Every structure is written in C-alpha cells, then in structure tokens.
C-alpha cells in the first residue's frame, strides 16, 4: 500500500516516505500474524488439555456407568471406575447400559484367569439394580466394600450375594442390607478413605461362603497381592465377566505411585497401589478384595483407565481403615 503526500515535496522525499510507509504496513502485518499464531497456539493447547481430561477415568462411575449382563473408567476402576471430560475411573459396573458419568473411576480384572468361588469364598457380589460392585465378607454379617459403590443410596437399594462363581449367581445365597456405614473422610472427588461397611439383615453362610480377616500391615513394595472380581476384562468393554476372575499383581512404592498420578489424583496414606504388565482391576470390580496369604489388605478403588502403562491400580489400604471398621462393627 502507498500513502499519498501533498504539497511541494521533491520526488525523492515522496519515494522515501512511501517506502517507509510500506515498511510500517509490513510490520503491522507481521505483528498481526504473530498475534494470530499465539491465538492458534492457545487454542491448540486448550484442545489438548480437554482431550487429556476426556482420557482420565476412575474405576467406578459413582453408579452411572453400566455394563450389560450378557460396563463404569468403562467402569469403577468402575472407571474403577465411565466417561465425562475425563477423570479417573472408579470400579463399579452397571449391567444394563453404558452411561456417561460425572465421576471418575474404573474396575474389572484385566489379564486375569478364571477361578472358582471355592478359592475366594469371602468375595461377594453387591447389587443395586443392574449396577455391580464387589465386597469382602469379614464377619458373617458384615461386608467391607468401596464407599463410592454405596454413598448416596439407601440400604434397601442393595442386595449381597455370596457363594457363587458365576455372574448370574443362580447357585448363590442372597441377603438384604440393613445399614450402610461410609468412612468419615470419603469424598467422591478425592476418593480418599474409599471404604464402607454393610450390615446384612442376617448371617451369610452356606456352601463356598467364608470370611476373611482384615490385615494389620501395609504390604511392602514389590510383594505380590491377589485381586478378584466379575468386572470387564478390558478397558472400554460393556460386558461383565460371566465367571469370577483373578490375577496376581505387585505393590508399587507409594512415592512412585504419587509421581505416576501427579496432576491426576492425590495418593494418600489411605491408599496403596499395585500393578502388573497387562493386569489390573477394571469396571465392575470396585469394592472387591486385594489379598495376600488369605488376609484382606486392600479394597478395589480407582485407576486411570485399566492396565494402562504408567498408571497402577489404586486400592484402599485396609490397615488404614481397620480401626474405624472395628469400631463400627462393635457399636452397631
């Protein structure tokens, strides 16, 4: 672009001013280009951040993500366990349909093998309609499970089934729940102290039904622990396992787990982490047992997806909630 100059100016001066004006316009274009590039860069970063949030999952979906019987993250591990602009996935499963979830988590046994209830007679199914979690029978009338499976619901919403290997539980024994006791520090946002006790309406006994004692120690890093459940066998699946699954995983150092989950979740003293290549709990496994030498050491809680490299499963440390649980059972 050229600017017009009036008056008795020499041709040389006109040319000089015209060139100078042209340079100014070029500078303005350059500045505008740089501003546009900055805007595009910020937009790209925002899109990337949103995509990262979509990929986060907890192992349960606070009851919103479902599995069909024949998912939530993606269940509890539930998703934990499960879908929104994505968080961690908690590990709870609903066996009807998939639903987007506002919470976090995902959980079923990924990379496991089929087993029978006789090897884990203390594991029970926790049902709320078509929603599935697990629990551990610690006395004949008390079940220890994950708080995210039950918080916000009434005792009458749940049934507990023990003594069965299969998902349909046709050979099991069913009990109703008379009261629910959620750990005092639990919040769905942070998943801290993710534990709850269910008192059954009557003792749960029968073939292949037994209790397990709560551990009074935290397993060392590198030690093997066992997980079990009926959850989905891979992240994103909508089908729960028809038979009980189990897998061996190894405990991860607390410091390493905090580093792995930095920016995703806060790993507290109430949690322990464990992993194995290609093995993990996933949607539908929430509330289930983590054991070693027939002692209950953990409760399936949440994780970032299922069996993802760099993200171990996160479990409630039973030793950290043991005193609370003992007091609840003694006073109720």
UniProtKB/TrEMBL annotation:
Organism: Drosophila melanogaster (Fruit fly)
SMART domains linked: Tryp_SPc
Family to which this protein belongs: Belongs to the peptidase S1 family.
Protein name in the entry: RE37218p2
Domain Peptidase S1: 109-330
Gene of this entry: CG32270-RA
GO terms classed as biological process: proteolysis
Stretches for region Disordered: 49-105
Alphabetical UniProt keywords: Disulfide bond, Hydrolase, Protease, Serine protease, Signal, Zymogen
Skewed-composition ranges (Polar residues): 65-77, 92-105
GO-annotated molecular function: serine-type endopeptidase activity
Annotated InterPro entries: Peptidase_S1, Peptidase_S1_PA, Peptidase_S1_PA_chymotrypsin, Peptidase_S1A, Trypsin_dom, TRYPSIN_HIS, TRYPSIN_SER
Biased composition (Basic residues): 78-90
């Amino acid at each position: 672009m050229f600017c017009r100059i009036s008056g008795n100016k020499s041709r040389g001066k006109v040319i000089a001013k015209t060139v100078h004006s042209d340079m100014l316009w070029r500078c303005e274009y350059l500045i505008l280009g740089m501003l546009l590039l900055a805007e595009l860069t910020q937009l790209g970063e925002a899109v990337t951040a949103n995509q990262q949030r979509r990929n986060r999952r907890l192992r349960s979906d606070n009851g919103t993500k479902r599995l069909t019987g024949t998912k939530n993250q993606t269940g509890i591990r539930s998703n934990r366990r499960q879908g929104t602009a994505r968080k961690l996935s908690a590990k709870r499963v609903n066996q009807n349909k998939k639903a987007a979830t506002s919470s976090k988590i995902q959980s079923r046994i990924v990379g496991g093998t089929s087993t029978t209830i006789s090897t884990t007679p203390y594991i029970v199914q926790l049902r709320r309609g078509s929603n599935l979690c697990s629990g551990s029978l610690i006395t004949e009338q008390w079940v220890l499970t994950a708080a995210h499976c039950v918080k916000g619901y009434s005792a009458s919403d749940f049934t507990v089934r023990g003594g069965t290997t299969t998902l349909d539980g046709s050979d099991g024994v069913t009990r109703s729940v008379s009261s629910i006791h959620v750990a005092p520090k639990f919040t769905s946002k942070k998943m801290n102290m993710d534990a709850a006790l269910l008192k059954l309406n009557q003792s749960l006994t029968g073939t292949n039904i037994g209790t397990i004692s709560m551990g009074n120690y935290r397993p060392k890093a590198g030690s093997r622990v066992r997980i079990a459940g009926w959850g989905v066998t891979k992240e994103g699946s909508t089908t729960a396992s028809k038979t009980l699954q189990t897998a061996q995983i190894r405990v991860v150092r607390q410091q390493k787990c905090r580093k792995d989950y930095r920016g995703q979740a806060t790993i507290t003293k109430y949690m322990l982490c464990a992993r194995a290549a290609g093995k993990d709990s996933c949607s539908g496994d929430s509330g289930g047992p983590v054991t070693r030498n027939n002692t209950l050491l953990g409760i399936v809680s949440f994780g970032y997806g299922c069996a993802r490299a760099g993200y171990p499963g996160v479990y409630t440390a039973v030793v950290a909630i043991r005193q609370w649980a003992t007091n609840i059972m003694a006073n109720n």
